[in-house]
Write a structure and sequence with these properties.
The protein is mainly α. The chain folds into two domains: 173 residues, Up-down Bundle (Growth Hormone, Chain: A); 190 residues, Up-down Bundle (Growth Hormone, Chain: A). It contains 18 helices and no strands. Helix 4 packs antiparallel against helix 7. The radius of gyration is 20 Å and the shape is globular.
Length: 387
Amino acid sequence: MSLLLAVIYLIFVSLGLPDSLLGSAWPVMQTAFGVPSSFAGYVSMTISFMTVISALLSPTMIRKYHAKWICIVSIGMTILGLLGFSLCSSYYMLFVFAVPYGLGAGAIDASVNHYVANNFSGSVMNFLHCFWGIGAMISPNIMALALRYARWNEGYRWTAYIQMCILLICLISLPIWNTNESEDQEELQESAGIRESLSVPGLVFTLIAFFAYCSGEATCFLWVPSYFAGTKAGMSKELIASFGSLIFGGIMFGRIISGFVSDKLGDRKLIRIGIIVEMLGIALVLLPAEHYLVAAAGYVITGIGMGPVYPAIQHMAPENFGRKYSAAAIGLQMASAYVGSTFMPMVFGQIQQRLGIWVMPFYLLLFALMNLGFLEAAYFQIKKKAE
């Protein structure tokens, strides 16, 4: 089981590796292709759209195929996407390879989350998502090395080589996955589809809550540096850019803490504590302090609070909805997550253009309250059904 966990953690490193490449390479790619900077959004949305599709298809795939085969095929698809990006000589070629790039991510995310939720503890789930963060932090450094010593194309190619090594390890580890295979496969054959699962009490409210969480998280990833640029004076461009890691670092730290305490607290209590900490962080950002350190601390605390929410919602799916519906529930949760993270930062972009970037903490607070409120409504429906 320890070897299996090591392989699963490595798979989540591979899931995080492609996520940060486009943003870190785009300034150079934009010049190479001769397109406006905003054109990165169209490529990103195509990748996200394909990820949503694969997340919605994941319940059917999980029912028909074991998680290990979904992981292997998905990693293979991301390798194809990465190698394809490295070979692109025009902007529009990117859209062709954005298809396998995105399809691989959604399938592997949903299948591994489902496998871990049904076979391992909440601590494992929290640590699992920490390893996604490790992958997401490694790839910008790979691209930086490529831009320094070669070209942006090599950044995608080198990342693909790392993915190939992870794929090889997954192939070698195939016999280890048989540990839980016999007891799970019969249940998976009887698992419900998406349409049937939507009628399960509490699921729709959970989807809205998950949408709200990912909307706030993705808004932070994109707009935190702009918040400091627009509200604090006397900061260098380099310092402002570095503040893009505040939320990300806070989330990783929050998940490390949660990994040690989640089995004692349980998923629901962990989520409640996390959202309360998140709102305290947002309140700190709202304080009328001139120095940027107060708002910086507020965003770190906001990230720490966000940390356990995503893994805990995924982990409690079998408990809330039953193992029969857990595959469809997790697939739907992944789809709602990607919809929120794709569109709501863009919505905020329009809002701040009209009202000002100062409105960002209120926008985040709205989603935090939605997250907490809809989850509590879901718990109420689940409890009512049990009675």
